[in-house]
Amino acid sequence: MTLFSILAGIGLALDTIRAHKLRSFLTVLGVIIGTGAVIGVGSIIAGLDGAITNLLRSFGPNTVIVTKTTAMGNATRDERRRRPLELENARAIAERCTSVEHVSPFLFAPGGIHSARYKGNDLYNIQMGGTEEGYAAGGTTMKAGRFFTDQENSHHLPIVVIGEDVQKQLLATEDPIGKRITVDGHEMEIVGVMDRPAASLPGQDDTRILIPYFTMRKMFPSAREHMLIVIAYPGMIDKAQDEVRAVLRIARRVPYNGQDTFSITTAEQMIEQFHNVTATVAIVMVILSSIGLLVGGIGVMNIMLVSVTERTREIGVRKAIGARRSDIVVQFLTEAVVLTAMGGVLGLALGWSISRAAGLVFPNLPTAVPLWAAASGVAVSVGVGLFFGIWPASRAARLDPVEALRYE
């Protein structure tokens, strides 16, 4: 096998494709779809992974989130039965943990659809919660106005700070500071507008409405579910986690050999958990995409067998003038590889189109075709041509030259 024979085989393959354009396209359609799916879905997963990683890191390297259930994933039945965290837990952490700079309780609103209203404009499914001044130390910045203070919280004042999209949808043409909106039937005064988080989920609106903790308790006496936001001193996050765990185990009367009845998670731990989820999704994506490649490979093998039959006489002539079996094998394998490689290139274009379309639908999703996805897509398509071209190529090479020359 020489470079000249390979180049000649590529030329013959291109001539065959030009002579049977529609047949060639239909043959590699499965390869195009499979390769496009690998590249397109790979770009979306890579973009989503990057967006959520940035989102979690925006909590800050010194932030610890304490919840009743596992921070990511579905809670088990035992976790749902756990006693909720309480305000007293936050106070105990602030008093006893020397490595903790700030700790703020976050009281979740009871279940149901919550709404806000201003002059006939309604906004539903708001993200409402009650917290304290220390919440802003976790990286919250203000677009306008200010965050509420602990003094305002202790006096149960009816004030709120709102997210950027709440302002856009309720008070798009007005200065929001000092305006009074109705939140679940309660009239509240806006004292600040928060900037959108440094990184947010793709397509996610910033519909946060934060209320002073004790005002929230007054509005919803039945609310019990808490999250604790703990901010450690720089470089002391590991020590802070140990101290928080010790304080909570004592407060919740956990036996010395018992499991924690709460979850302590840092941004890096949540990122690791999310990477495990995306890895599973990527494996499923590869398996599903391989079905399209398998169908495409069978189509390639079928059309190559037809090509061998159609060109039996040509094979006989080549063997009669001295072509070896290896020359025939190289010729047909080259044709199969060229066919699937062109399918891989078209699949690359399809995957890029999927990536661009996802970027237009979700502007916050930083989709980009990763190099590994593009390279693996084209490489797999070439591998499909090699694998499914072996049988037709070997069948062509085994033809008896005398019988082949007689073939009509």
Describe what this molecule looks like in 3D.
This protein has 14 helices and twelve strands. The protein has about 400 residues and is α+β, with helices and mostly antiparallel strands. Strand 8 (about 180-185) and strand 9 (about 185-195) form a beta hairpin. It is elongated and about 100 Å long. The protein folds into two domains: about 5-55 and about 275-405, no CATH class; about 60-265, no CATH class.
Radius of gyration: 32 Å
Treating each run of at least 4 consecutive H or I residues as one helix, how many helices? 14
Helix content class: 40-55%
Chain-averaged pLDDT: 80
Structural class, by secondary structure, is alpha+beta
Q: How would you spell out the order of helices and strands?
A: HHHEHHEEEEEHEHEEEHEHEHHHHH
Uncertain regions: pLDDT < 50 for 5+ in a row? none
Report the end-to-end length measured between terminal Cα atoms: 30 Å
List how many beta strands DSSP finds.
12
**Apparent shape:** elongated
Largest beta-sheet characterization: 12 strands, mixed
Number of domains: 2
Percent strand equals: 15-25%
